[in-house]
Design goal:
mainly alpha, 2 domains, 8 helices, elongated
Amino acid sequence: MNRRHFLSGILMVGAAPRARTAEPSAEPSQGLPWSSLTPDQQRLLAGKAAQWDVLEPGRQQALARGAARWLAMSDTERVAARERFRLWQRIPEARRVLIRRRWAQFQALPEEQKAIVRANFRAYMRLPPAVRLKLRRRWINATPAERREWLRGARQRPRPR
């Protein structure tokens, strides 16, 4: 699997603007009535219609947001999304759990820190592949203390834009 595409896909998903159709309530504990979905969302989610009322409210809202995003995509974006999903399916479940946990940690960061993470990622991706490999190996072989120090230094350096 190409890590660059996977990582950029993960970052793109979080940074992409979301379509606003049949906006779910801000309160995740509230159920989302099937009738509040647009006809296009209902067609897309038709397989879930029979069990919609028994789905957890958060799941209903996630499905509604996902359907809205899917409907707002171009054909090219849908092909890319399908490919990212196929790649995701091939990742072992334990690794997916770790990725979800790290994504949640990223989402919990203040916007300023998210911007720093994104800038660091862009700078990393501009490096030649051999340099990235060297840095990756250095990170893997580092002690926890060395990693903390490396991160501390990275946070303090000014970022090129």
